[in-house]
Amino acid sequence: MTEQTMTIREMCDEFEVTPRTLRFYEAKELLFPKREGQKRLFSRRDRARLKLILRGKRFGFSLEEIRQLLDLYDIGDQQQTQLRKTYELASKRLDDLEKQRAELDANIKDLKDQLKWGEKMIASMSAHKKAAE
Prior knowledge:
By secondary structure, the chain is mainly alpha-helical. It contains five helices and three strands; from the N terminus they run E-H-H-E-E-H-H-H.
């Protein structure tokens, strides 16, 4: 590996992804490795883009949202638009995740309450059965 490029294997090892994942992102035009015959060589820019793609996926952004954010890098305004748009999408995503967490918390509480009720019913039935014996 040189400082400038990494092979597909090196990228896989560095970012803990599969070659198929890298080829998929290349096919979706999110990464643009150079080709030397059959060999793909990934630049620093590809590495930075992959890091952002993986982070975006972890936060639940769609590939289309990630593509739009990455494409804003090159519009020539020192990434102001990219940062602003990323902030807007991230804020909305955070709101969505917090709503999902609140729903999960409510569902967990409800299920725990149901389990407690079930425990009481089982204990009550067991007590009645023992008393009848």
